[in-house]
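Hey, I'm writing a tutorial for new members on how sequence and structure tokens pair up, and I'd like a real worked example in the thread rather than a made-up one. If someone can provide the structure for the chain below, I'll link this post from the tutorial.
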Amino acid sequence: MTFRVRGHSLRKILEDESAWADFLISKAALILASAVLFAALFQLGAGFRSLEAGEGLDAVARDFKAAVDEVGSENFREESSEFLYHFEGFDRFQASPFEREVDAYVSGEYFRLETEIDGKTVRAIKPFAFRVLPFNETALRVKLLERFGAEGSGEDPLPADYSEITKHLSAAGAGEKERDVAKAVSIKKEFIYVKEGEEVSGFACILIYQ
């Protein structure tokens, strides 16, 4: 029995070294082209997954920032207001394609989410519109008491000037604090009071803690 390849017998191809070489080269080229195409498709798919992950992460960060902005913009005069934020209540966060747990960080200037997909780190960072401090009210009062000798409450206002206080708070809130996305995050609007002569006035800050 004689096998034929594209109209030529296998025996003739074996006898013709040039034809046999061309045959092998064409097959190798076809295999190489297939491998390149497969790699390109794989990279394209990975790129789409990274893009999707980035968009999902950005949506979560944007939603959290909106919650902080909402608490900050509420007009509560001389009253504290608190809101509990649940990451797991956000559908896109639950359906995320991330390969590892999402890490969340809060500083006095921004909110950052970070995770990994296809071996690449994906981040989303959103700056805050209000003065934010990454600790609770107890920590705030202790820091103020240690620095200024007063807690900054309505009953114990700070004796220092406004610029000195804000400078101290900016330094205190500069570092990142990690937050557990599996637990509720408290977003609280708190007032700090300053005494100038006989007059006492207050300004607000946003505390983010667990």
